[in-house]
């Protein structure tokens, strides 16, 4: 859910972040079919309608099943949907062995039997092309990061960014991230950012 039960919204100066619903499908199917938006997410190709449908269903299920998930990001002033931002599960190999970089996977089902993994929460962001360059991704990500630390009290939060994804590296850097580790995801070497979490006060 990323948001705790009973919490419906995160708000920032210009944005509202909320759980996705089925009526958001048209927007997300459109942006995920845009080659420029899709280039550095997952397999990198524009998503078909079926792929986006599976993705939205999995996202909504992850609210319940994993207590995590990507949130829809809308503009406060007019309610327009802009993109998504939130926490997704990521399993990272604890010992890379002879490999140059530890492998990671999005779900437990993908992890090979012989791999030992740590369960991490990955902070991600994706916005419609027409809404790039306004600081929306950074504003949304900053609020999810603060919520993850201060309310969810997660021990750490990570982000995985493809080497060529310059805009995404800039978002992570503006959040104070430093890419100090390489990981392998979907057969590609990527940069891992790590933000320390915080234990909630009792
Ligand atoms: C990654 C992505 C979200 C970054 O979008 P973005 O618009 O560059 O990032 P932000 O929303 O933080 O905006 C920052 C830019 O807005 C500008 N900006 C304008 N008004 C601003 C404001 N009020 N506040 C902050 N920044 C502002 C900043 O100067 C900055 O521009 P610069 O990077 O050219 O210096 C976007 O490129 C995207 O959706 N890509 C496709 C999906 C993807 O790759 N996701 C990430 C996978 S790891």
Q: Please, could you describe this protein's structure?
A:
It is a single chain. Strand 1 and strand 2 (15-19) form a beta hairpin. It contains 5 helices and 9 strands, in the order E-E-H-H-H-E-E-E-E-H-E-H-E-E. It has a single domain, classed as Aminopeptidase (3-Layer(aba) Sandwich). The chain has helices at residues 25-32, 35-38, 49-65, 136-150, 166-174; strands at residues 9-11, 15-19, 69-75, 81-93, 103-105, 117-127, 156-162, 181-185, 188-196. It is of the alpha+beta class. The model has no long low-confidence stretch (mean pLDDT 92).
Please specify the SSE layout and strand pairing.
Elements: E1 9-11, E2 15-19, H1 25-32, H2 35-38, H3 49-65, E3 69-75, E4 81-93, E5 103-105, E6 117-127, H4 136-150, E7 156-162, H5 166-174, E8 181-185, E9 188-196
Parallel strand pairs: 5-8
Antiparallel strand pairs: 1-2, 2-3, 3-4, 4-5, 4-6, 7-9, 8-9
Helix pairs in contact: 1-3
The protein binds coenzyme A.
| Total domains | 1
CATH topology: Aminopeptidase
Number of strands: 9
Quickly give the structural class: alpha+beta
What gross morphology would you assign?
A: globular
Q: How many helix segments?
A: 5
Q: How many strands, which pairing sense, and closed or not: the largest β-sheet?
A: 9 strands, mixed
Strand content: 25-35%
> What is the helix/strand order?
EEHHHEEEEHEHEE
């Amino acid at each position: 859910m990323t948001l705790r039960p009973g919490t419906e919204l995160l708000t920032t100066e210009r944005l509202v972040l909320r759980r996705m619903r089925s009526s958001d499908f048209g927007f997300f199917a459109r942006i995920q079919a845009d080659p420029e938006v899709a280039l550095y997410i997952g397999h990198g190709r524009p998503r078909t309608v079926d792929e986006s449908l599976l993705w939205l269903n999995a996202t909504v299920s992850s609210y319940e099943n994993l207590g995590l998930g990507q949130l829809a990001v809308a503009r406060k002033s007019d309610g327009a949907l802009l993109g998504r931002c939130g926490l997704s599960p990521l399993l990272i190999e604890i010992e890379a062995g002879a490999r140059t970089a530890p492998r990671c996977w999005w779900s437990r089902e993908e992890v090979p039997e012989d791999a030992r993994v740590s369960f991490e929460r990955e902070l991600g962001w994706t916005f419609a092309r027409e809404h790039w360059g306004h600081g929306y991704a950074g504003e949304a990500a900053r609020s999810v990061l603060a919520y993850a630390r201060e309310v969810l009290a997660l021990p750490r939060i990570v982000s995985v960014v493809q080497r060529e994804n310059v805009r995404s590296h800039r978002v992570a850097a503006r959040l104070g991230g430093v890419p100090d580790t390489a990981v392998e995801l979907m057969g590609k070497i990527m940069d891992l950012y790590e933000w320390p979490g915080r234990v909630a006060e009792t």
